[in-house]
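Before the break, one more example. Copy the sequence into your notebook; we will annotate it together after we see the structure.
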Amino acid sequence: MARRLPIHTIGHSTLGIDEFVALLQGGEVRRVVDIRTITRSRTNPQFNQATLPASLTPFGIGYEHIAALGGRRNLQRDVPPEVNGFWDNRSFHNYADYALHPAYLEGLDYLREIAQQERCAIMCAEAVWWRCHRRIVSDWLIAADEDVRHIMSTRIEAAKLTPGAKVQADGRITYPAPADAQ
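Here is what the structure looks like once it is written out:
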């Protein structure tokens, strides 16, 4: 069986295109998979969906947007609060709840299909993975036995499952509140 390609994560932050591409090249990334809900930026227009693909093309890097993996999710009223009670941060809690729905799972499956074809990096705006929904996407990928690596400004580090994550028998991930917090 062929060895799986790693899936990288990256946050564009305020980087210039040349700096961003250098980080991607350090991980041998061939495709950026944009998982932002809002694919434009007033302060960093070089990362707008309308211009980013053309900026990456000369470097042999493709671009794809998967809206189903975008962050900034609303409260999911059909998921009981305790299911993902580990998250005190409402944004993370909402995203963890959303990740239990079919639309998310379809987006994740599509990402994994892309990753079988070429080395990719999921991208959002936040520089550091632990303050971004890339953290939860990474957990789901790790649970699916994918090799996930975070591209940071000076290094590439192997992703690890969030300590509060619980992988269910069906492969879904929940983040229950710690027993001592209940």
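The mean pLDDT is 95. The chain has five helices and eight strands. Try to locate both features in your own notes.
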